[in-house]
Amino acid sequence: MKQNKSLLQQRIHTTWTKATRIITLIASGGGTPLVLGILLIGFYIAYQTLLTELPATFPFDWVVWGILTYILSSVEFRPWIEKADLVFLLPLEHTMPAWRKTAFLYSAGMAMVRLIVVLFLLYPLYRVRIGTSSEWWMAIGMLLALQIWTLWVRVMEDHRRLQGYSRVLDQACLWGVTAFLVFWSLHPYQIYTLLALLLPIVHSIWLYKTTKTSQMPWMLWQKRESLIRHRWQSLASWFVELRGVEPPIKKRTWLIALIKRFTTQKEPFTYLYWRTLIRRSDLFASFYRIWIWATLFVVSLPYPWVSWTITPLAIGLFVLQMPRLITQQTYPLWVKLYPVSPGRAVHSWVTITRTLAFLLGFLLIIMPLAMQRVSYAEAIILLLINWAIGLLIIGWNKRKLSQSSQVNR
Amino acid sequence: MLAIQNITGGYSRTSPVIHNLSFQVKPGETVGLIGLNGAGKSTTMKHILGLLNAHSGSITIDGSTLSEQPEDFRSKIGYIPEMPLFYPELTLWEHLELTASAYGLSDEIFHKRAEQLLKQFQMERARNWFPDTFSKGMQQKIMILCTFLTECKYLIVDEPFVGLDPIAIDELAMLLQQRKEKGTGILISTHILDMAEKLCDRYVCIHQGNIALSGTIQEMRSQAERPHATLHELFLSVVKGDRR
Predict the structure, then answer these.
(1) Which residues of B150-168 are buried (b: 16+ CB within 10 A; e: fewer)?
(2) Fewer Cβ neighbours under 10 Å: the N or C end of chain B?
């Protein structure tokens, strides 16, 4: 039992060490803190405007109630179960309650931190329009207790392994009870609030009596753990490139259908690279991330020179990253056996990169035009400059790739 | 003809895994490459495929080496690897489309063959699934389907029956037989000696990187001086050191 617990503690420690490294990397980067700073200031201004300009009749309490119900009900138990545990920990199932307890404490801690952040953000809204400061502190106490309760219900739910309609009913029940309790937490009318608390107590007794907790839902927990990890990794990959992390595959059927409809894919590597780009590669995220960042700069800095420098820079940044599509992806070995020359692989890369550079160039001038940072004539010149820069870098990369033995096809 | 002549090679120059191997695979015949784990079977196959460079010797297909005519050489070889290797971002159907596109199959032929293979290997319902949701046997079927979609002149098949269900084993054995009858030369590595006996015309028995026995079962019996031995007994006599 002790060994299990230390394995879990070690796992949590390793995860947080990695996370700290990633956060440090992001914080020490040039662009991200700047963009986040701009976003925070923007958010602050927008929030202030909302508080002062929305009419008093606006149903603030319903908004707060809705947000808190969602936060409390959508809580997730993080089990820390990995694939290999299904082999190595399965025989130690009888010792797993200690594991579950630690994992529960961890999940509860994280859920409470999340709730406190949300409550901190909601405080001005509550204070100005809904209740007093002392009522707010009372509500916080009740909501934190409620968060622990919803998490415990989630763990019980995992053990019950409900399927189909009974699962939907169970979910509806949890959301309903939580919504009811959040309402009473925000509107504490003493005796009614106390009566409302009877509901989770009765529900908990019933759950405790009817749920068998001796068997762990191994598969469910392993799947959830993997999903939680992917979610954090994909969030981090917005800001830094995470090497060695296998990205989750996104189906993106509609986008693939769109590409199939509008591009020629007779060449095998054109066919392959489009799918790799859209479903697996972080370059797809790079595409829209660069577009969003450039747009944010254009919106937040009201000078024409920003558009003239940022948009060509954005095109350059994107095209410079594109060779990774054929050099760094891990394509299976047997595809090297295809009777297709490396030259054709490079040609496919050029076709895709050119298409994306044209599209990005076009998307990048929309905001300068819409914000009237440039005139129509200037927009066309800017578009041509962007495309020319893109094509120049593509040509340079093509020569490099053609001479390189790194072309991984 | 696929000809392997005096090949010495491996993963490092200083310690070769295979030593001076020579054998041939003619069109319309199946040659079984048999040996223990680590004997050098997969290494030999990787040399034939050009995934490893030989220290010495040469490998030719119809007289040409890989470096002389790379596209022609590659278009004549189909490969089923021991471990399923696939693109996690492509569905089963997209793997087939990609293979068809690489080997230049027409749409009509592709659809006809692909549908038939999917049915034969009971993979129709999985056509739009991503392979990381497949069982190991199903993943191996992707390799088989992709290889049999093409009409290569030579097939290199590495432990193809591992992880397959009984129906798939029968279907694969039948397909290999049909291909052989159509004139395809097949080099197959397997531990399942009963299956090898059914499928193969000749054998190359490798032990510690050297050819210990080779030829038809009769020829191997006379080489081993055991006139009534089965393939199994011959194999055991080699690997247990009765004969080197």
Answers:
(1) bebbbbbbbbbbbbbeeeb
(2) C
**CB neighbours (10 Å) of residue A269?**
29
Contact A338, B77 (CB under 8 A): no
**Site from A340, A344, A348, A405 to mutate, B interface, most B CB atoms within 10 angstroms:** A340
SS3 B34: strand
* Pairing of the two strands B210-215 and B154-158: unpaired
Q: Which residue has the higher pLDDT, A185 or B147?
A: B147
Question: Helix B166-181 to helix B136-149 angle, to the nearest 10 degrees?
Answer: 20
Question: Maximum CA pair distance of chain B?
Answer: 55
Q: What is the CATH number of domain B2-76+152-239?
A: 3.40.50.300
Residue B67 has pLDDT above 60, yes or no: yes
- A341 contact residues in B (CB cutoff 8 A): 70-71
CA B160 to chain A, closest CA, distance in angstroms equals 15
> A272 in contact with B at a CB cutoff of 8 Å?
yes
pLDDT per residue over A177-190, tens digit each? 888 888 877 776 66
Res A30 pLDDT > 70: no
Is the CB of A248 inside 8 Å of chain B's CB atoms?
no
Residue spans of the domains in chain A: they are 2-233, 250-403
pTM of the model: 0.69
Round the average pLDDT of chain A to a whole number and report it.
83
For residue A186, which phi and psi values (nearest 5 degrees)?
-80, -20
Give me the interface pTM, i.e. the ipTM.
0.77
